[in-house]
Amino acid sequence: MTSEEVRLNVERALEEIRPFLRNDGGDISLISIEDDDRLVKVQLQGACVGCSVNTMTLKSGVEMTIKRYVPQIEKVLNIEK
């Protein structure tokens, strides 16, 4: 998978997740893909910022969905403002 394909698939994964986040008043944006396409940095937004379950959302929702689209991704990090 090329870096461009990785980026497109990560964006597809985020599009799948967005309706759930928006339903709770939040959102997510892709910041970068680094370390030979193994690390994804995202930024949770809106109600997701400071939410007590955002770590769980990031691991069980966001990271799991991204890995389903791009299995080579090893880690997803939330970059806070």
Automatic annotation (TrEMBL):
Pfam families: NifU
Domain of life: Bacteria
Record Gene3D superfamilies: Fe-S cluster assembly (FSCA) (3.30.300.130)
GO BP terms in the entry: iron-sulfur cluster assembly
GO molecular function, one term: iron ion binding
PANTHER family, sorted: IRON-SULFUR CLUSTER SCAFFOLD PROTEIN NFU-RELATED, NIFU-LIKE PROTEIN 3, CHLOROPLASTIC
Name this protein carries in UniProt: NifU family protein
Phylogenetic classification of the source organism: Bacteria, Pseudomonadati, Bacteroidota, Flavobacteriia, Flavobacteriales
